[in-house]
């Protein structure tokens, strides 16, 4: 199995991504690192543990990381995810422990201990933990197999400002460090996640599964869909973060290009924008595989098949 660390700020769509990874025998989740994002760190680390328990995997080590962006105050997204970050179904407090080690130490230690080229990082939130690890231990960068992240937008532009996607906007300095690091980078931006919509027919399939995970996915979709229906008039909500795991499981469902992507950190209106050179009009070297398209039905078939395997 492909070995991954999930860095996350759950978030209903993060939660679905975690369930998808834990339901997939072709992936081995070495650990989950929480970061402040959709809601503060105290909630994201708690939510990550709740999701592991829903998947029947209290053995997964969960670590708390950075509680604020590198150089700015935290911006959160309760308007999308609710007060707890996982609003929707009633959820019990987690029983499994939070690990003592800091998430950034776990990332560094793991990458130094494991054979080079065998571990992939999957960031699903602001890139604070990843940038902190890269800054403190640049020796881990060439040891990574890949970084496959959800963040950014180009043709679909922004969801938190007119120009910026939430994960990049919250910590643009961190994003700039990751995008300039030279690590093999795969980016799943809004351009692709806005094509992976939780339509009523797709949600019905989760509801019909009869397992706890399927019910949770349906109820989370019911909750965060309301925001998107009102705001964008779509018939469902984009399932952003599961696209990262979907790409790892079957990259053939996705289409993108190797291009240059720069992070705007000091724009007057555009801070946090991912300036993606899709048409290759600059002479800047490609630094990312920027995904733009997905076979949404194929992706939901994969997701449904895997979530149904959970107890
Ligand atoms: C991203 O922001 C968060 O609200 C979601 O969990 C996703 O990671 C989408 O812009
Ligand atoms: Ca997220």
TrEMBL record:
Pfam families: IU_nuc_hydro. Keywords: Glycosidase, Hydrolase. It comes from the Bacteria. Residues 4-301 form the Inosine/uridine-preferring nucleoside hydrolase domain. GO terms for biological process: purine nucleoside catabolic process. CDD domains: nuc_hydro_IU_UC_XIUA. InterPro entries: I/U_nuclsd_hydro_CS, Inosine/uridine_hydrolase_dom, IUNH, Ribo_hydro-like. GO terms for cellular component: cytosol. GO terms for molecular function: purine nucleosidase activity; uridine nucleosidase activity. This is Purine nucleosidase. It comes from Cereibacter ovatus. The lineage of its organism: Bacteria, Pseudomonadati, Pseudomonadota, Alphaproteobacteria, Rhodobacterales.
């Amino acid at each position: 199995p492909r070995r991954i660390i999930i860095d996350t700020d759950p978030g209903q769509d993060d939660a679905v991504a975690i369930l998808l990874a834990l339901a997939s025998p072709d992936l081995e989740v070495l650990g989950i690192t929480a970061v402040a994002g959709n809601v503060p760190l105290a909630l994201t680390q708690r939510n990550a543990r709740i999701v592991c328990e829903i998947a029947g995997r209290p053995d997964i080590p969960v670590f708390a990381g950075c509680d604020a962006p590198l150089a700015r105050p935290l911006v959160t997204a309760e308007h999308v995810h609710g007060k707890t970050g996982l609003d929707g179904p009633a959820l019990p407090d987690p029983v499994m422990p939070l690990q003592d080690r800091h998430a950034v130490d776990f990332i560094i230690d793991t990458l130094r201990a494991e054979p080079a080229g065998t571990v992939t990082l999957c960031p699903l939130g602001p890139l604070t933990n990843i940038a902190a690890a890269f800054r403190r231990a640049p020796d881990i960068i060439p040891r990574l197999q890949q970084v496959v992240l959800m963040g950014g937008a180009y043709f679909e532009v922004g969801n938190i400002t007119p120009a910026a996607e939430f994960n990049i906007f919250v910590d643009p300095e961190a994003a700039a460090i990751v995008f300039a690091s030279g690590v093999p980078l795969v980016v799943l931006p809004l351009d692709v996640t806005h094509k992976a919509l939780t339509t009523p027919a797709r949600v019905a399939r989760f509801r019909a599964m009869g397992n706890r995970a399927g019910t949770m996915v349906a109820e989370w979709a019911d909750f965060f869909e309301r925001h998107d229906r009102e705001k964008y008039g779509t018939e469902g909500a984009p399932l952003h973060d599961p696209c990262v795991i979907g790409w790892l499981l079957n990259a053939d469902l996705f289409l993108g290009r190797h291009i240059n992507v720069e992070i705007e950190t000091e724009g007057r209106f555009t801070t946090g924008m991912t300036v993606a050179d899709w048409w290759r009009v600059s002479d800047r070297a490609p630094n990312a595989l920027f995904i733009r398209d997905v076979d949404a039905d194929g992706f939901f078939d994969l997701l449904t098949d895997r979530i149904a395997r959970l107890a």
